Amino acid sequence: MDLFSRTMLASSAEAGLTTTTLSRHVPLLRRNVRPADRVALLTGCVGSDGLGSGDCMLMLTSERIVVTRQSRLLGRIRLCLDAPVAAVENLRWSADPNGPGVELNFTVPESPSAVSPHRWHFWLPASHAKRVWRIDALLARAFRRPKATAVPIDGSQTSPRGPVDDAQSPPWGASPAQAPGFGASLAAV
What we know:
There is one protein chain. Helices cover 26% and strands 31% of the residues. By secondary structure, the protein is of the alpha+beta class. It folds into 2 domains: 3-144, Pleckstrin-homology domain (PH domain)/Phosphotyrosine-binding domain (PTB) (PH-domain like); 158-188, no CATH class. A 7-stranded antiparallel sheet has the order 4-3-2-1-7-6-5, with helices on both faces. Strands 8-9 form a two-stranded antiparallel sheet. Strand 3 (64-70) and strand 4 form a beta hairpin. The chain starts with a helix and ends with a helix.
């Protein structure tokens, strides 16, 4: 099983998607991403044209954002959006734990011949408030901090030059002499 399939199944289980819904949308979703892409978020959503448009599925990978839609009348699945994450502009989202859900808005340039970019609006419903905060964290990781990595405090991470020792080299590159409170802040944690 490739990385896409493993992460897609885990994301669909987390979102609580039914097997029937997943089996309808996955063939089209798979066509638009590489087998080595990791699925960060897979969730059902409602497009800006409301419930009459049909059931939508939003998938966010490390490289692409893909939205498919199943029409209500004929039940056909079609591609609504397939764009690289780097092309997403003016991204805004609002997490509402009382809703519960997340409102997602962004602009994607359509094509070089298009007069203006298209603005997309989606409501990502969630079953509970924890799922809302999980979606919020996944969006933050994908768009606000795309190159962020977690560094353990105990210094167990290794770099190409050997083990990293947080007491010797703070993560921002300053020496311990330049950061007098660095050791004390780690001890307090």
